[in-house]
Amino acid sequence: MTDISHSFTLKAIRLPGIGLWKQANWIVRIATLVGLALVVLSVAAPLVAPFDPNDQSLISRLRPPLGFDRYKDGFFLGTDELGRDILSRCTFGLRLTFALALAGACISLLIGGTLGLVAGLAGGHLDDLIMGLVDAQIAIPMTLIALLTLSVFGSSIDIMILVLGIYGWEQFARIIRAEVKKLRQMPFVEAAQAAGAPPLRIAFVHVLPNVVSPIVVQFTLNFSNIVIWESTLSFLGLGVQPPTATLGSMVGTGRDYLPTAPWIVLAPALTILLLTFAVQILGDWLRDHADVRLRSR
Amino acid sequence: MMKLLGTTALASLLATGAIAAEVTVGAANVSDYLDPGRDHSNVGSQFYYNAFDTLVGKNHDRLEMEWVPALASEWKLIEPTLMELKLREGVKFHNGEDLTADDVVFSLNRMYQATFPPYVVRSKDRLSNFAEAIKIDDYTVQVRVEREEPLWETLLNLQQVMIIPEEYTKGLTGDPKVAEDSDFEAFSLTPVGTGPYKVAEFQPGQKVVYERFDGFWGEQAPLEKATVIRMPETASRITALKTGEADIVTNIAPDQLELINADPNLKTEGSATALFHVMIMNVNHPHLKDPKIRQAMSLSIDRDLLNEALWLGKAVVPSSHTMEEMGQLHQPDLVTFEYDMEKAKSLLAESSYNGEEIVFDAFPVYYTNGVLAAQAIMEMWAEAGINGKLNVTEKWTGNDPEMMARSWSNPMYFADPFGSFGVMWAPDGPSEGAGRFNTDEEYAEMWERFRFNGDVELRNAAYAELMDRIKQDPPVLPLYRPFESWAMKSNVNWAPKKGHIPYVLDFRAGSISFN
Amino acid sequence: MIGYTLRTLIKMAVTLFVIVSLVFFATRLSGNPVDFVLGVGITEDDKQLLIKYYGLDGSIWTQYWHYLGSILSGEFGLSFLERRPVSAIVAERIGPSLKLIFGTMVFTFCVSIPLGIAAAIYRDRLAGSAIMIIAFLGYAVPAFVLAIVMIMVFSYWLNWLPVVGNSTFSHYIMPTIAMSGMWVAALTRFTRNAMLDVLSQDYMRTARAKGMPERVVILKHGLRNASITLLSVMGLQIAGWIAAGSVVVESIFSWPGIGEMLVRSAIQRDYPVLQFGVLSVAVAVILINAAVDIAYAYADPRIRLAKGT
């Protein structure tokens, strides 16, 4: 059982990607390709985008995409409510959304993971304290926290990352704590404790590798949630400051045009769809493959 | 299942079509309270005219001011500063009480001699010349002003001096003989007036239900019942109209008009509302002290382009702070505000401006096209060389010394330059009082002539001088009169009336009917 | 046992106290109601007049002290905007909110638990992948986009469903689905993963070896054991719905619920409404969490034993 997982890990290290690719089914392969394409697109946004994403042209607002009446030459995906190029805004929006969601998910993993691990291992008053914080976080609507944070500190990208980073930490904490508590009863951890291993060693060597699977799943969930939540903030008028484009803000502010100019929302919404899809399918698949017990069956 | 749902929807459609004496309105916003005295918001003005009356009425079908008897059957000036009004007899409040001089004196003095803080705030900017109302007998009232008042009827026709019942209000809380602050607070949740509709149900921020008041003194209301429900989402409002859940919906942006008008069962009505969307500038901000910078901020905004692009050309771009509703005081020939990019650039070059960031604050959703216009303005500024930055926030920054520029609206609270420009830019008025506008003796002297002169020509001349001051040292730029639209079923005959202040939902006799 | 209960109660009280204090200071740091709608276009003098009238003129500590005192005496004050007791406002809105949450809960659980189990059983087949892809869709579409698209299709074009309010059953269909989207995705996924975990356990192999039919193995042993993980997730979700889930759906469907009230009062700094609203939500969430904890301990003997020692 352990042998299999070891050889799996080693193989993955030796041939990063290739071994995994061979084991993947077609859905995962497509998801990988889509994911890679989106990464490339967001990194190369300045090269890909035909126009400056914020360049307005008030006389050619709300022009439809290629192939429709009133199409404006060069603006393949049409123009938005201020005559800006949707393709360019989508590319730059993807770039920023990617960065925001990644940073946000990492921050919440860091906060939630640390606290969850500590709570699960330490138990006692520290556990109570951390779980109290978790309860408090769950009980205060996140929109309120975002709203108040943004109005105290002003709305900038940095603050936005912070606000997104707070989102979901409590889920990391709860899930990891629960897993750790389960693991603590496991023979190998008890054995290590009995052998007098220091707590940090137990945390990193014995516990952490075994909670990877729920962490990966939660991370992909959190990433997608942040992408969606960022658009919800825009819906409420709390998103990034205009004219900056994120996928979420394009959807959030463009929604009033859904009946009349649906392409404004369609392009960024589909990009969100692809992004979250790819991330989650990969996350799910990685989880299946990293799960020791499942592979041994 | 689907069939069932289909038939229910159909049934409700038929039902609303058949009983034409009821309407449902989908409004983007519903008031949190209903008290005509303390309110002057754009949201609130929708609601009062159906349920309340003023002493002096107005013919709202006409743009020109034509005063008609309302709760006062006649009025005459008996001294230069004393007006005597005869009250209509047999008027009843919605709760069955008779209207007498006591109610009128109570209603007027709650504003003229306000002690309740929200009334104090409201009465200052427009009613400060009104000293007191005095009861002569049960159906005669006198109103005394401090100085000769050229706008008697106008200021007796204000929403803020609509008449409410004395006994009922005082009896709402605490001592029934005394008007406590809590009485006025309670009144704003259970309002009672003399209008053709009574407020049968009020769920603050969500719903207002009017029912026909059979004891109304004038022509009976055409509707049995009118329900206004908050529907904040544009797509939901338009859809509710289509499914028959609403008969009329408010706040339709120009971009949506085509879609609605293409539907044979629906139509739209709209007008360039008697209100300016404005940009205000803080003359006292360290970076904006030089008037040339503010002139450049104003000159570089191509308002006609904004109108063409965002309002499909349906808004009205003014050359000065003036409106045609003001009749003889409408001065379209004044050129106070214009677009001149070259001049903006050269003024900026002459000025003390060194590329400092100029922050422009805007509310997120409150004004139709507000954030769009703000973003477009940032581009126009950039072209002139102004380093603008948009800050979308719910916060009212107009009292903040850090505020540089922001969007706002300046409604016509009553049909006079004093009722729009004057409410905000008087000496010691709200703008100066908020620290972002300065006046001096010269300005105050011009103001005096404009405000209190009995002669229209002299008032116009003084107003022109004020406008010139505004042009030289600008604190404000009116962008346009927004074109506000309502959408409704084709069989509903309703349109905003020319003689009203902005946004009034008028369902009185002669204002709404069905085919 | 009494000691345990007492300790739990004290913990809850402390959590509530922390929340109440956090909200109190955060709202006051971020401006007062006169900085928002109430104060638009008034002079500085008038602004001070209103600040005094609304009782916002004392030092923050005086206000805090006063606030704590009033909570203990059960007085939660009047809304600044609506001028009526906040308890009346919350009472008016709690019903519609609970109905929406209940509908969402039923829908989510009915859809996602069977889907998750199926996805685990058929994980190597197309059916399993297809289920997960459909479930992921719920994650990938913002609730307001889903809601508006549904409105366009089912109300605007087909005229099947109403969009405003909550008076009949058909009013519930779209809001419930719009609210469930994300949660169906989450719960399906968690169910699947929990089932997969359980399926690989030794006792499952034993059960199979004993010759029990696969369905019985899964439903009897699998679901029971997977429910441990599921429970903690469910607790989170119900709490999430109450605390956060509904503002978007409420404003789109003109549904007069708590979520919309909370956001509106936060935007306008209507402190009394906001504070009472947050407090009520927090109490509900904490009670649910406590219930989940108890259920959790009951479902997993190992934890029960650990707590006993």
UniProtKB/TrEMBL annotation, chain A:
UniProt cross-references to CDD domains, sorted A to Z: TM_PBP2
Q: Which residues are in the ABC transmembrane type-1 domain?
A: 94-283
* SUPFAM superfamilies membership: MetI-like
Family that this chain belongs to: Belongs to the binding-protein-dependent transport system permease family.
- Which InterPro entries does the UniProt record give? BP-dependent_transpt_permease, MetI-like, MetI-like_sf
Top-rank taxon, per record: Bacteria
- This protein is called ABC transporter permease
Q: Pfam families annotated for this entry?
A: BPD_transp_1
**Where is it mostly found?**
membrane
- Residues annotated as transmembrane: 26-51, 96-118, 138-167, 263-283
> Keywords in UniProt for this one?
Cell membrane, Membrane, Transmembrane, Transmembrane helix, Transport
For membrane topology, the record states: Multi-pass membrane protein
TrEMBL record, chain B:
Where is this gene product found? Periplasm
| Source organism, top-level taxon | Bacteria
Signal sequence, start to end:
1-20
Instruction: List each copy of the Solute-binding protein family domain by range.
Output: 66-418
Q: Does the keyword Signal apply?
A: yes
Q: What Pfam families has UniProt attached to this entry?
A: SBP_bac_5 (PF00496)
Q: Which InterPro entries match?
A: Peptide/Ni-bd, SBP_5, SBP_5_dom
Q: What is its main location?
A: periplasm
Q: Which UniProt keywords apply?
A: Signal
Kindly list any coiled-coil regions of this protein.
none
The family line of this record is: Belongs to the bacterial solute-binding protein 5 family.
* PANTHER family listed in its UniProt record: D,D-DIPEPTIDE-BINDING PERIPLASMIC PROTEIN DDPA-RELATED (PTHR30290:SF38), PERIPLASMIC BINDING COMPONENT OF ABC TRANSPORTER (PTHR30290)
What is the protein's given name?
ABC transporter substrate-binding protein
- Protein species of origin: Roseibium polysiphoniae
Automatic annotation (TrEMBL), chain C:
Q: What is its main location?
A: membrane
ABC transmembrane type-1 domain: from which residue to which, for each copy? 94-292
Q: Look up and give the membrane topology term.
A: Multi-pass membrane protein
The record ties this protein, via CDD domains, to:
TM_PBP2
Q: Which Gene3D superfamilies does the protein's record reference?
A: MetI-like
Q: Provide this UniProt record's keywords sorted from A to Z.
A: Cell membrane, Membrane, Transmembrane, Transmembrane helix, Transport
Coiled coil regions, renumbered to chain: none
Subcellular location, in the record's words? Cell membrane
Q: Which residues cross the membrane?
A: 12-31, 100-122, 134-157, 169-187, 228-253, 273-299
Of which family is this protein a member? Answer: Belongs to the binding-protein-dependent transport system permease family.
Please give the name of this protein.
Answer: ABC transporter permease
According to its UniProt entry, this protein's organism is Roseibium polysiphoniae
